[in-house]
């Protein structure tokens, strides 16, 4: 069993030192009392629950998986009891509106909670995690009666929620879905069809499961314009069992502790959520939050792998350092002294801590967009969210998986067996690049919809932040980092214009450049946050901090990122400039 400890000090650094979280909350009247004392108390309690309750169940969930018997799912041993503790402690209600039983704390703290839970046990965390999107969708698009009926129980945690989009013949292309919704005399709808890959679609943790389902009305137009959204509870408000059942459980590569279901809707009673034929628009409320949640999954697997491989590298004795023994009284040196092991550890550290900065910054924009009082600040937050969401989802999950693999490599052959938990981490991490929109889909969304279709407005929102930082720190001790960041920031805009001009001649250029553009964007975004972290660390050292070693490590990691990781942008730059021709040159039958 792998031990896990919440990286509390780094969480505090990002929130309070880097982003001045108290000032952020004080600028939003309803969050003005959310100070460091509140956040630290939350972190303390999260650490107890995640380290002592959830982490020991991680391997259990992987080993036992879920069991389907007579259309009912039994979760792994201990999962149900852990969920009861989670609900009793009030965690599901933390970031929800007090009108519906919530505690009214900032959305950004929900991201911190998801990270904590997910690092300890991602498969378990998906059960309450999916409820969050259902709650947001009901809050924004439900009627007063629907909110009182469903939202209050979801906030309480007595019920959980799902999102039911995918069908066997349509994955990303939701315009092809066939699930039907026939009007009933009582104003409800009869939902018929089959949905696949439904995470937490059936389980024994909660009293009820509220499915948010996409389906077509009889007179609906073709394509995505003809999709409506429905509430389909497992147990109806009158207490009767609805006609929605788990037909089978998927046999998966990882996240075995979570029930990934095929759900059959056999004339199940459903209730229209939002406007007819506007279901996909409403579902984006759910999907965008889910994409940010999946971005955090990349961070969780990176953190888990880094902790395990770092501890192992300090203890495992193998060979001698080329410059001479570093452990002369032992038979060999610990592998952490070897440069290649350092490369893997530092890569994990740089991506893990950099991704935490990106995740928290993005989550804070949710607070401003939803609860800010300044219209311009709300608009800026909305633009930054639109721009950063696909980057966070794709970039963080790609490198969550890379870091999980680096961790496994640090263990050598021991990493390939179950004993240490790192091979499970690799398997669990792989799904994050697939669900909630693959990396390719996120890249098309970023370059096509968020950048080119806005004439670069959302991009400029972010590059202006970088420009201001570089200008303010032009003569600082970190001039080399700042100059490099400024060069990439300018190149980012030039590159975008280059692709836009090429796309005017051939729209296929967008698809050809998209993934490289997203990865380039992710590297530069993390460079910005690492430069900010290094500047803040220098400031703290100059003030005479008692944590000099901690802050020195931030500067050294930033320098590693700029020297060893940021140069990856050169490959993506070259690939984008090569154009679409090399991708379309071959005929289909030549493959």
Observed structural traits:
591 residues, Butyryl-Coa Dehydrogenase, subunit A, domain 1, Butyryl-CoA Dehydrogenase, subunit A, domain 2, 7-stranded mixed beta sheet, 10% strand
* Poorly predicted tracts of residues: none
Total count of strands: 9
Overall body shape:
globular
Number of helices: 17
Beta-strand percent range: 5-15%
N-to-C series of helices and strands? HHHEEHHHEEEEEEEHHHHHHHHHHH
Report the C-alpha radius of gyration, rounded.
24 Å
CATH class of the domain at 8-153: Mainly Alpha
Distance from N terminus to C terminus (CA atoms, Å) equals 45 Å
Q: Main beta sheet, described? A: 7 strands, mixed
CATH superfamily of the domain at 8-153: Acyl-CoA dehydrogenase/oxidase, N-terminal domain
Query: Mean pLDDT across all residues, rounded?
Result: 96
CATH architectural label of the domain at 8-153: Orthogonal Bundle
Briefly note the structural class of the backbone. alpha+beta
- CATH fold descriptor of the domain at 8-153: Butyryl-Coa Dehydrogenase, subunit A, domain 1
**Proportion of helical residues:** 55-70%
Folded structure, characterized:
Among the domains are: 8-153, Acyl-CoA dehydrogenase/oxidase, N-terminal domain (Butyryl-Coa Dehydrogenase, subunit A, domain 1), CATH 1.10.540; 161-278, Butyryl-CoA Dehydrogenase, subunit A, domain 2; 454-582. The radius of gyration is 24 Å and the shape is globular. It contains 17 helices and nine strands. The chain starts with 7 loop residues before the first helix and ends in a 7-residue tail after the last helix. The protein is of the alpha+beta class and 591 residues long. Helix 5 packs antiparallel against helix 6 (144-156). Strands 3, 4, 5, 6, 7, 8 and 9 form a seven-stranded mixed beta sheet that branches. Strands 1-2 form a two-stranded antiparallel ribbon. The longest helix has 37 residues, at 279-315.
């Amino acid at each position: 069993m792998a031990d896990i400890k919440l990286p509390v000090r780094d969480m505090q650094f990002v929130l309070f030192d880097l982003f001045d979280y108290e000032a952020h909350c004080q600028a939003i009247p309803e969050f003005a009392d959310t100070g460091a004392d509140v956040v630290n108390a939350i972190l303390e309690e999260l650490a107890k629950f995640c380290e002592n309750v959830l982490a020991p169940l991680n391997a259990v969930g992987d080993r036992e998986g879920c069991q389907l018997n007579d259309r009912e799912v039994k979760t792994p041993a201990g999962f149900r009891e852990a969920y009861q503790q989670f609900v009793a402690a009030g965690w599901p209600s933390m970031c929800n509106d007090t009108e519906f039983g919530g505690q009214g704390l900032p959305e950004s703290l929900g991201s911190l909670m998801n990270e904590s839970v997910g690092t300890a046990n991602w498969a378990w965390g998906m059960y309450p995690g999916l409820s969050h999107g259902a709650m947001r969708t009901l809050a924004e698009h439900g009627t007063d009666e629907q909110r009182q009926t469903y939202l209050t129980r979801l906030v309480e945690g007595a019920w959980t929620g799902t999102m039911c989009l995918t069908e066997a013949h349509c994955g990303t292309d939701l315009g092809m879905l066939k699930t039907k919704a026939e009007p009933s005399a009582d104003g409800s709808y009869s939902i018929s069809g089959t949905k696949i890959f439904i995470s937490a679609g059936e389980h024994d943790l909660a009293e009820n499961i509220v499915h948010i389902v996409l389906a077509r009305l009889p007179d609906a137009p073709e394509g995505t314009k003809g999709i409506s959204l429905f509430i389909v509870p497992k147990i109806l408000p009158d207490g009767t069992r609805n006609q929605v059942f788990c037909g089978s459980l998927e046999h998966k590569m990882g996240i075995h502790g979570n029930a990934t279901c095929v759900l059959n809707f056999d004339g199940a009673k459903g209730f229209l959520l939002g406007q007819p034929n506007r279901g996909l628009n409403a579902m984006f409320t759910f999907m965008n939050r889910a994409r940010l949640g999946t971005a955090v999954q990349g961070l969780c697997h990176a953190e888990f792998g880094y902790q395990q491989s770092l501890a192992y590298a300090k203890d495992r004795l193998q060979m001698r350092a080329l410059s001479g023994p570093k452990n002369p009284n032992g038979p060999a040196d610990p592998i952490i002294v070897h440069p290649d092991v350092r490369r893997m550890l530092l890569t994990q550290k740089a991506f893990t801590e950099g991704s935490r900065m990106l995740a928290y910054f993005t989550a804070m924009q949710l607070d401003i967009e939803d609860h800010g009082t300044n219209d311009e600040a709300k608009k800026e937050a909305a633009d930054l969210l639109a721009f950063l969401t696909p980057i966070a989802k794709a970039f963080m999950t790609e490198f969550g998986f890379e870091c999980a693999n680096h961790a496994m490599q640090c263990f050598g052959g021991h990493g390939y067996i179950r004993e240490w938990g790192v091979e499970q981490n690799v398997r669990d991490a792989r799904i994050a690049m697939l669900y909630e929109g693959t990396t390719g889909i996120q890249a098309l969304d970023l370059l096509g919809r968020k950048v080119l279709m806005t004439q670069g407005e959302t991009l400029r929102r972010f590059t202006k932040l970088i420009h201001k930082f570089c200008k303010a720190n032009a003569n600082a001790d970190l001039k080399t980092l700042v100059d490099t960041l400024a060069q990439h920031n300018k190149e980012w805009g030039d590159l975008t214009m280059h692709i836009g001009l090429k796309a005017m001649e051939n729209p296929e250029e967008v698809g050809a450049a998209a993934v490289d553009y997203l990865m380039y964007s992710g590297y530069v975004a993390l460079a910005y946050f690492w430069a900010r972290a290094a500047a803040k660390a220098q400031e703290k050292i100059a003030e005479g901090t008692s944590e000099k070693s901690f802050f020195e490590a931030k500067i050294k990691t930033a320098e590693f990122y700029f020297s060893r990781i940021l140069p990856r942008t050169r490959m993506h730059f070259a690939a984008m400039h090569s154009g679409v021709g090399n991708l379309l040159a071959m005929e289909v039958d030549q493959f």
